[in-house]
Design goal:
alpha+beta, 1 helix, 2 strands, 40% helix
C-alpha cells in the first residue's frame, strides 16, 4: 500500500507543477496530514 501512496504523491506533485501551484505554499491543492488532499477551487490570486 505504501508504494501506491507514494504514486499518488507523485501525481499530485506533477499536477501542482502544471497548475503553477507552489509546493512550499500551495493555494490550489493542500495536503491534509493523515487524510489526503484538498482542492480549493475558489482561490484568489
Amino acid at each position: 500500500m505504501d508504494l501506491f501512496d507514494r504514486s499518488i504523491d507523485l501525481l499530485v506533485s506533477r499536477l501542482r507543477q502544471k497548475l503553477g501551484d507552489d509546493p512550499r505554499t500551495p493555494s490550489l491543492i493542500k495536503t491534509v496530514r493523515g487524510e489526503g488532499y484538498w482542492f480549493d477551487a475558489k482561490v484568489t490570486r
